[in-house]
Amino acid sequence: MRTLLLLVTALLAAAAPAHEAPYVLGVHPYLDELELVRRFTPLAEDLARVLARDVRVEVGTDYEDHIRAIGQDRLDVAYLGPASYVEVTRRYGPKPILARLEADGTPSFRGYIVVRDDSPLERLADLKGGRFAFGDPDSTMGTLVPRFMLLEAGIDLADLAEYRHLVGHKNVALAVLTGNADAGALKAEVYEQYRRHGLRALAESPAISEHLFVTRSDLAPALVARLRARLLGLREAGLVERVLVPIKAGITALVPAQDADYDNLRRIVERVKAQDAVGAP
Amino acid sequence: VKVGAPGGIRPYWAIYLVGMLALAYGAWYAAQDQLARDRAASEEHARSEQVFLAALVRELLQSGNYEDVQTLVAQWGMDRQDLVRVVIESDNGFALADYERPLPAVRPMVLETAVEYGYGNGARIRMVRDLDAVFRERDRTLLHLAAALAVIALFGAHLVRTAHFRTREAASQRALNERFVQANRALAQEIETRKQTELALADERESAEVTLNSIGEAVITTDGNGMVTRMNPTAERLTGWLREDACGRALGEVFRIQGPGGGSRENPAEELIRHGRVRGLGNDTMLLGRGGRVIPIAHSAAPIFEAQGRVEGVILVFRDVGEDYRMRKALIESETRFRRLVEGLVDHFLLTQARNGAVTYVSPSITPILGYTQAEFCERFPDQLTDGASAVRFRERTRAGFEGRRRPSFELEVRSKGGSVRTLEVRQVPVLDETGTAIAIEGIAQDVTERRAAEAEQRLAASVFENTAEGILVTDLNGVVQRVNRAFTSITGYAAAEVVGKTSALLSSGRHGPEFFREMWDTLGEAGHWQGELWNRHKDGRIYPEWLSISRIPDPNNSGQERYVGIFTDISRQKDAEEEIARLAFHDALTGLPNRVLLIDRLETGIARAERQDHVDALLFLDLDHFKHINDSLGHSAGDTMLREVARRLTESVREYDTVARLGGDEFVVLVNAVADEHHLALRRARRAAEKIRAAIAEPMVIAGHELHTSPSIGVALLPLDADNPEDALKHADKAMYRAKAKGRNTVQFFTLEMQTEAEQRLALENELRRAVDQGEMELYYQPIVELSTGAIAGVEALVRWNHPRHGTIPPARFISIAEETGLIRSLGDWVLETACRQLRRWEDGELPRVWVGVNLSAVQFRQTDIVARIAESLRVSQVDPGLLELELTESLLVENVGSAIRILRDLEAMGVHLSVDDFGTGYSSLSYLRRFRLHKLKIDRSFVEDLPGDPDATAITTTIIQMARNLGLKTVAEGVETDEQLDFLKAQGCDYAQGYLCSRPVPAAEIPALLVRSRCPASRSEA
Lengths: 281, 1024
Known about the structure:
- The complex is a heterodimer.
- Chain A has 10 helices and 13 strands.
- Chain A is α/β, with parallel strands linked by helices.
- Chain A has a 6-stranded mixed β-sheet. Chain A has a 5-stranded mixed β-sheet with strand order 8-7-9-6-10, sandwiched between helices.
- In chain A, strand 7, helix 5 and strand 8 form a beta-alpha-beta unit.
- The longest helix of chain A has 19 residues.
- The termini of chain A are far apart.
- The N terminus of chain A is likely disordered.
- By secondary structure, chain B is α+β, with helices and mostly antiparallel strands.
- In chain B, the strands form 7 sheets. In chain B, strands 28-29-31-32-33-34-35-36 form an 8-stranded mixed beta barrel, surrounded by 4 helices. Chain B has a 6-stranded antiparallel β-sheet with strand order 6-5-10-9-8-7.
- Chain B is flat, with a radius of gyration of 64 Å.
- The interface between A and B is medium-sized, with 32 and 30 residues.
């Protein structure tokens, strides 16, 4: 019986969560890893104070890795883009949303399909047989949303004479300006930046709900509530400049969000996926 | 000095001007030439850079990196100071990049290149570079150089001109100088003369002053009116007046005198001045000092005359006569004291001799020494009181003293009145008169009779000390060596100088423990004496025994300086003899091996130790086969040689701390200590040791020119299992030996029959096991593992069987331990792994439902350095999905090999191989390894499962394991499931898989496909 007690005690000790293990704040690799750790550390430190436990910043090896980590509840707090969120929920079911970004006063962002000022094109449909510049294949505003916009206008990739994925939105703007593409897809701030060099918007994208923070689905509800309250209260606490702006310039607050806020993106994804499935051999 | 006239300068200016122009032209020409060449070079450079930039831009545009083109151009602009402008413009006129330097170009060069980059797109690169940009700096340097040269030339010209004027003016200057020097010299001479006169005067003054101040007499001078003008320090001291106060006062006020009786005296100075008479010394005058002191003085006064003969003043000289009196009085007192001292001497006395050699005085202390009165001594000494030699010596020395030769002291032997002879040491001192002539000899004599006797005794002692054959050392109470003798040096090897001042611990051999010395010191402290045998170390490192006796020697003067004296003799030889006797008693004379007596002693300690430390000793009893023939045919001497050779081979075959003994005849015994901790192992090891010995002795040996063969029969007893006392042990081993003889000799037999059988069987198994793998006697059986939620077979565990041609199927429990001991587990393990993987491949090819195969990994395999590589190789060859291979590890393996285990498990994990813990729950209460390694499954040990669900302990443990595994994200497999109740319980608790006879016993590979296709295990009937 003594042995049994020992064994049971040992088993329970092994089963209990390790006391020292820090919480993990996971980030997708949209920048260099060191840079990301630097940018997210103020937030991690703030959360550590609130939770009375260390919070460690971990950067996923790629978007897919990040999505898997969130899906398998390996991250206590995760920052992710709207498209990744849609993918996570599609594959792993809902995850508790903590908050989403609000940039320049709006919790969503837009993009444009642009042409040169002197382009003869007037409507998206005119792009048939044209050369198109997309952003990164994974980029929501660089690829996903414009694909949808083109599809809505009746244009699939096959209808284009040529299309390329360029690294970053700026390269897309320059490709259009130099005449190397007839049109391209840009997020709003890059469009604003290059407009005066001679760009014109052919179409505006629907508003897409911003980047967000989620937590693991098995975290204690009390803890979820505490995390959410802290993130939403950052503006109130006057910590925007110190904690949020490093993450992304122009952030003005973290605001509440619901899964439904991402429904339009979800439809966009499904539409594009469905098209690809049809188009696939 | 004024230099030159303005008219003289002009021609030189012309020279400067021409020189400067020439220089400037030269510099300009050189610069132009260089510039032309440099421009050509930079043009070349610019063109090649243009080509390079075009290539870079083309590359970037082709890959759509427009932004990078912008960055590149900006970077170029910053890096190149000659770059005036770079524009990259697309065909449609859009300026993709535009860098412009804010400074204007001096000598611009324009380069244009068109870049084509696919899709019919193009761009133009227009670059403007300033050919002079780099070289502007060099121009400036040249200009500075020219300017510097010009300045140097000007300065040179100036130097030339100055030199010219100097020569012209030099002559007149010299003449002028000459005159000036002469005048100067005259003046200097005059000054010198004057100075010397002054110095002489000053000297005179000064020396008079010094004289006045340093003489012992007091001096006072006055002027013509009798006023004090000067006085020296002695005068100040005696009168009590300070010079400053006294000067200008009337002499009578400062120098107040009176007669001895207090009667007045006329002041000598006044008398002189008045009468012009010189007064002689007066010795009875008293000077009344200023502080009331009265000093007896002698004084005189003399007039000072001026050139015309008038009395100009008085010089008064006087001195304190009181000091003379005091000195004389002190002398008298000292003489009295001296006499008193002489009279009071005890062993010293004084001899005074007249020139004729007679003793005129002897001090009274002579009487107690010699018994004679002073008068008797003076009358008889030396002739009647000394022997001839002493008398001669005394006379000779006395004569030398009178001749003024100083001699050292000497000794005299003098007879006392009582007849004894006393030794006197005499030191003579001559008494000199005022002319330095000796008028008498005084001698101080001392009775040294006792001292001399003691000295002689000491010399004798020293001689004995040095010459005795025993080593002696004297130490203080702290053991610091003070003295040693010659024998000490010859015994210890240390010279006196090497040990004096060090402690005697220097000699310590280290053989004796601290208790030994503590006891020695205690005895010394209490009894003052210790003796015993002691091992010390010779200087050359050799350890030798000595017989040492130490005594504490009290100090004769009682000053507390006690010492120890150690006297010792080297007893090595004696000791050697004793040991030889002991050796003869305990050893065999022929072979030098321990004999029966010593063996019994060793056996006793060996058995006791084996029992205490819980290990096994092996006793090998050995008899040479057919030894009698050798003795009979070749003679006893050949037989003895053979026995010695056997002894040598035996000794070489065992470890140093084992015992080889000869019991007599051709019987030998070997005691192998601590062969093993465990009985089976001991059996094997003892057998191996015996075999080794048997083989060693069976080797041929050359004796008396013959090559001889012999062999032993060996009987083995294991201690303390077979016997717990030496007699039984020998008896049992002997018995086993006889059995070996009966078995045909040259063999090894164990004492107990079971052991003998076991040893034989194991040996046979071991040999057969070596061949079993190669001969295809091994076979893998597979036991299905069922997923409880579906009832489908999810995996199988590979179990090795040995299909022995004679013994039939042998279960792993019988041969795995042998395989591990012998290292055969490696080839066996490789075979299992390869076979399992190959089988898995075959099932996969047969498009059967996918199952994993569990393979057991033994700790021995796990310690192989190349285990990971071997597994990888098996996977590679079979092309099996690593996720389907599951390695089953024991808990002990994980716990004991933590360091290397982590590395190996990481590697395996990286390969994608799954890991499970076998027999979980039986071993270790430390489960931290579960967190350290990334494992997949825990296999709950059958011992828990078999008690389910009735036993509360078993249910608690099983439930806990399942719960814990789930928390850790691990799956659970229950082993040995045999009943439906067990299965239901496990399913209810959430156990993932079950393995056991209820589902299926282990089956050959061929039966697995049928089971898989049926896909339902009988155990899941309840679900079906």
